[in-house]
Amino acid sequence: MWAAAPPAASLRAQLKTAEAENDKEATAELSRRILEITPTDSAIWNKLANTQLLLKDFDRCASTLDRWEKAIKPPPPVIEDLRGDLAYQNKDYTEAERHWLAFIAAKSKRDESARTYEKLADLCVVQSRWRENLEYRSRVIALKDTAANRVTRATAFLRLHRWDEAYIDIHKANALDPSDEMVKEWLPQFERLEEFLPRIKALDGQIAKSPEDTALLLDRARAFTLADRPLLALEDCQQAMKLAPGSMRARIQTAEAFLDNTKPEDAAKLQVNRRLARGTNKHVAEQALRQLGAADVLLARNAKDADSLAIRAKVLRELHQPTLSLADARAALAIDDKSAAAHFEAAHDFDELNQPKEAIAHARAAAELDPNDAVKWCFRGVLEAQRANFAEAIEAQTRSLALAETLFALEQREHCERRIGKVAEADVDLRRIHELAPAGNQ
Question: Which residues contact 24 (CB under 8 A, 6 or more apart)?
Fold first, then answer.
């Protein structure tokens, strides 16, 4: 009869199977049982602690590290590295950095130190400590100069606007290994940014001389946005918002940067929704930003400029931001309740926000205050029709058509005429629609 296998050997065989099957729960339990038999096996302690980290079982991991430290004298330096990992998972970044630096100071192997410096650099990114991030990336390269490590340092240079050094690194990375996945991912992004660098560098110089000029900051942010560098854009936008919290251009550009960084919840905090209008280049139109900026300047000089508020409300409405647009329209009306433009914007905003009673009230006011504007009469007619006030809608569209004949107004009137049995009048309008409509639309 064969002798029974020693318990530890049997457990180790089971452990290999659990690892092969990626069964983390079993790996942790088997490692724990092995340590009851062989409590000085650092490899098993290491496996247990790492598995508990992967399982996010942080309390047990902390206990494992404490027991490991007592079981083996002197304690292996890797315990410091793992304590850093645990602190990082608990978002105790100061402790994580302290433990990781202690691990490196214990004269760990070059590859181990390089990996820990990478973790320190990543920690600095989380904390927006860009200079320290660059310093740690440089230490990684001093220990292990690879294409991937050159790429990560190139991105660190980007965050500090050290453009020339960033491009030296990305080209060195490409020379080291053009097939590296990070090189293939990032090289086209650097090439895209390079198209905008002359403009960015010029703005860098201007901003250095006038660091509180929000227009310059927003112009540079715009260049970063077009270059598909939303994190760099966000940094400039947020600085502009600090300097000019009432700037609607800064608010819209900041929200766009948040959306580009897939942070719609942060854009929503600025009252900007996901429907922010973008052009064919997937960015807010340049003209809209310029119009917002111009209105911001006038309002900074005179906060009671009702016309500028109404203009800004119109731009915001066209960007599909009715909440912000309505705020400006109301502010304009508080200054001048006879502003037809402000009433018109408020009507659109209330309609978009599904408040029909308020929308029609403002639409009627806008048309009465500016009776020679065909667009205001036409929109009033649309809202009257939505409320089934077809006679009023026909009258409004008739007023609109008397000022400027459009297919839309004719189609609206024809529809309303049929709804109340005015078939003859509707047929007349329909014939005129056929005369005006392009051949392909008939």
Answer: 51, 54, 55
